[in-house]
Prior knowledge:
The structure is a single chain. The protein has 3 helices and 2 strands, in the order ααββα. It has about 90 residues and is mainly alpha-helical. It has one domain. The chain starts with a helix and ends with a helix. The relative contact order is 0.13. The mean pLDDT is about 85.
Amino acid sequence: MANRREIISESHRRYWRANIRLIGVLLAIWAAVSFGCSILFVEQLNAFTIGQLPLGFWFAQQGSIYVFVVLVFIYAWSMDRLDRKFGVAE
Protein backbone atom coordinates (compact mmCIF):
# COMPACT_ATOMS: atom_id res chain seq x y z
CA MET A 1 0.00 0.00 0.00
CA ALA A 2 2.85 2.39 0.77
CA ASN A 3 4.26 1.92 -2.73
CA ARG A 4 0.93 2.80 -4.30
CA ARG A 5 0.76 6.02 -2.26
CA GLU A 6 4.26 6.92 -3.37
CA ILE A 7 3.36 6.30 -7.02
CA ILE A 8 0.17 8.34 -6.75
CA SER A 9 2.00 11.05 -4.87
CA GLU A 10 4.78 11.20 -7.50
CA SER A 11 2.18 11.28 -10.29
CA HIS A 12 0.41 14.17 -8.60
CA ARG A 13 3.70 16.02 -8.17
CA ARG A 14 4.53 15.60 -11.87
CA TYR A 15 1.01 16.73 -12.82
CA TRP A 16 1.21 19.88 -10.72
CA ARG A 17 4.76 20.59 -11.83
CA ALA A 18 3.59 20.46 -15.45
CA ASN A 19 0.57 22.63 -14.61
CA ILE A 20 2.68 25.28 -12.86
CA ARG A 21 5.21 25.23 -15.72
CA LEU A 22 2.41 25.81 -18.22
CA ILE A 23 0.99 28.66 -16.17
CA GLY A 24 4.44 30.23 -15.84
CA VAL A 25 5.10 30.08 -19.58
CA LEU A 26 1.70 31.54 -20.46
CA LEU A 27 2.03 34.33 -17.88
CA ALA A 28 5.52 35.14 -19.19
CA ILE A 29 4.12 35.40 -22.73
CA TRP A 30 1.30 37.64 -21.55
CA ALA A 31 3.69 39.83 -19.54
CA ALA A 32 6.06 40.12 -22.50
CA VAL A 33 3.25 41.15 -24.82
CA SER A 34 1.52 43.46 -22.34
CA PHE A 35 4.63 45.10 -20.93
CA GLY A 36 6.98 44.73 -23.87
CA CYS A 37 4.73 45.70 -26.75
CA SER A 38 2.81 48.46 -25.02
CA ILE A 39 5.63 50.02 -22.96
CA LEU A 40 9.16 48.92 -23.87
CA PHE A 41 8.89 48.62 -27.65
CA VAL A 42 6.11 51.14 -28.23
CA GLU A 43 8.27 53.51 -30.29
CA GLN A 44 9.41 50.77 -32.65
CA LEU A 45 5.88 49.38 -32.98
CA ASN A 46 4.42 52.83 -33.63
CA ALA A 47 6.23 52.81 -36.98
CA PHE A 48 3.46 50.44 -38.08
CA THR A 49 -0.28 51.06 -38.04
CA ILE A 50 -3.47 49.07 -37.81
CA GLY A 51 -6.07 51.13 -39.59
CA GLN A 52 -5.15 54.63 -38.46
CA LEU A 53 -3.83 53.63 -35.03
CA PRO A 54 -0.16 53.17 -34.23
CA LEU A 55 0.61 49.51 -33.44
CA GLY A 56 2.10 50.34 -30.01
CA PHE A 57 -1.09 52.14 -28.98
CA TRP A 58 -3.17 49.27 -30.35
CA PHE A 59 -1.24 46.72 -28.25
CA ALA A 60 -1.66 48.87 -25.15
CA GLN A 61 -5.41 49.19 -25.67
CA GLN A 62 -6.51 46.01 -27.46
CA GLY A 63 -3.68 43.65 -28.32
CA SER A 64 -2.76 42.52 -24.83
CA ILE A 65 -6.41 41.71 -24.13
CA TYR A 66 -6.66 39.65 -27.31
CA VAL A 67 -3.44 37.84 -26.43
CA PHE A 68 -4.82 37.12 -22.95
CA VAL A 69 -8.01 35.61 -24.39
CA VAL A 70 -5.99 33.44 -26.80
CA LEU A 71 -3.79 32.31 -23.90
CA VAL A 72 -6.87 31.31 -21.89
CA PHE A 73 -7.96 29.05 -24.75
CA ILE A 74 -4.43 27.64 -25.06
CA TYR A 75 -4.42 26.96 -21.31
CA ALA A 76 -7.78 25.16 -21.47
CA TRP A 77 -6.67 23.05 -24.45
CA SER A 78 -3.29 22.27 -22.86
CA MET A 79 -4.88 21.32 -19.54
CA ASP A 80 -7.28 18.94 -21.31
CA ARG A 81 -4.27 17.22 -22.85
CA LEU A 82 -2.41 17.22 -19.52
CA ASP A 83 -5.45 15.81 -17.70
CA ARG A 84 -5.73 12.97 -20.21
CA LYS A 85 -2.01 12.28 -19.98
CA PHE A 86 -2.18 11.91 -16.18
CA GLY A 87 -5.54 10.16 -16.14
CA VAL A 88 -7.49 12.86 -14.33
CA ALA A 89 -9.75 13.91 -17.23
CA GLU A 90 -13.42 14.35 -16.49
